[in-house]
């Protein structure tokens, strides 16, 4: 079952169960997909494109959480954390630290990177492999640490 079909089925289930939190999150994902497809001259997103939309939704909520915490709005922080949990259920299994290290080492070897100046080359190889499975900032920190040795 494709991710789009899964979202449609989950939307129906959330409607039947009157699960407002899940319903709201799925509608948000579907709106993001529609917006992306409209921006891309009416192309239909595949599972990879839908994953990018979901990752973007998670990132937006994490960024908003830091602002809510500064403002002392714990109720909104908790709401966002629940939404992040629902969104994360659509992402593939996250990579372990060992798997990330192996991917980074393979990318460094493949492009012949020797210094932090080559970080862009390494990230260009690693990013497509980690999309939706690891945080880009964390991976960038790991790459920088490996290249600084």
Q: Calculate the terminal CA-CA distance, rounded to whole Å.
A: 44 Å
How does the major sheet shape up?
A: none
Q: What is the count of DSSP helices, taking H or I runs of 4+ residues?
A: 7
- The structural class is mainly alpha
CATH class of the largest domain: Mainly Alpha
- What is the name of the CATH superfamily of the largest domain? Uncharacterised protein YqeY/AIM41, N-terminal domain
Q: Please, what is the average pLDDT?
A: 88
Q: Choose one word for the global shape.
A: globular
Q: Compute the gyration radius: what is it?
A: 18 Å
Low-confidence stretches: none
Overall number of strands: 0
From the coordinates shown, what is the CATH architecture of the largest domain? Orthogonal Bundle
**What is the total number of structural domains?**
2
| Proportion in helices | over 70%
Q: How much of the sequence is in beta strands?
A: under 5%
Which series of helices and strands comes N to C?
HHHHHHH
What does this 3D model show about the protein?
The chain has 149 residues and is mostly helical. It has 2 domains: 86 residues, Hypothetical Protein Yqey, Chain: A, domain1, CATH 1.10.1510; 51 residues, Orthogonal Bundle (Arc Repressor Mutant, subunit A), CATH 1.10.10.410. It is 76% helix and 0% strand. The chain has 7 helices and no strands. Helix 2 crosses helix 3. The mean pLDDT is 88. InterPro entries: Asn/Gln_tRNA_amidoTrase-B-like (IPR003789), GatB_Yqey_C_2 (IPR023168), YqeY/Aim41 (IPR019004), YqeY/Aim41_N (IPR042184). It comes from Sulfobacillus thermosulfidooxidans (strain DSM 9293 / VKM B-1269 / AT-1). One of its GO terms (molecular function) is carbon-nitrogen ligase activity, with glutamine as amido-N-donor.
